[in-house]
Each structure stands twice: as C-alpha cells, then as structure tokens.
Amino acid sequence: MTATSKILLVDDDSDFLESLQLVMFEEGYTAYTVSNGYDAIAQYKKLRPDVVFLDVRMPEIDGYDTFMSIIKYDPNAKVVFMSGYTLDVVRYADVEKYAVGTISKPIRHGELKKSIKKIMGNGAK
What is the pLDDT of residues 31-86, one digit of tens each? Predict the structure, then answer.
C-alpha cells in the first residue's frame, strides 16, 4: 500500500472513527470515514478505496448488508469486518468467502497496521 492508497473506515462511533483515521494518517494513508452503511456504499462507489474496514453492528443497515451491496458492485472489494461482538455465524458464513478478514474491537493500533500491510501484500504476517 502506498501513501496514495485509500482506506474507507465505516463505524457509527465517531470517536472510534477519529482514532482510526489518525492512525491511518500517521502511517501515510488517505483515510475516509463514514458513519453508516448507506454512506459507505455511496463512498465506495465514488472513491473505489483499496480496503474497507466495516463495522458489523450499525443502525439502519448493518455491516453484512452493506458488505453485500459493496461486493455486488465490486466482487474484488477488500473488506475487513470489525466488531466488538461475536459475528453472526449464519450471516458471516454467507460473506466469509469474500471478506479478507476480521478484527475484534477494541482494536490495537499495531494490529490494525499489520492487518493493512498483510491485506495489501506488503509482507507483514
């Protein structure tokens, strides 16, 4: 991933989003934030980010339905689910073949950085 790489961060917790965005900026990435699934779908289509970090539990449209809309638009989208809760086994099974990973909240910044490098093929394991 390069300094021009785009990351879309999706979560309904604005403090959490701000924290993640700061980590991305410190690492030299361009990070965009949205607080709901509908905006995530629109921003994905507009920005075509390199990776999306997507909260599972959000009001209006949850992460699973948001994910399915993004994958329908772009089957090659790289999406990582984030959750502080146990993933719904049935619903996650439907999307697991497309998702590139999951991260449990609270997220450690080092873990986040390592995940991005792994997803983008920069060698971190």
Answer: 999 999 999 999 999 999 999 999 988 888 988 899 999 999 999 999 988 876 55
CB-CB contact of 81 with 99 (8 Å): yes
- Name beta bridge partners: 63: none
Burial call 20-29: b when 16+ CB within 10 Å, e when fewer = bbebbeebeb
DSSP 15-31: HHHHHHHHHHHHTT-EE
Greatest Cα pair distance, the chain, in angstroms, is 37
C-alpha–C-alpha distance, residues 5 and 57, integer Å: 26
On the CB side of 30, CA atoms within 13 Å amount to 9
- Tell me how far apart the alpha carbons of residues 97 and 72 are, in angstroms, rounded to a whole number: 13
What is the value of pTM for the model shown? 0.83
Strand pairing class (6-10; 101-104)? unpaired
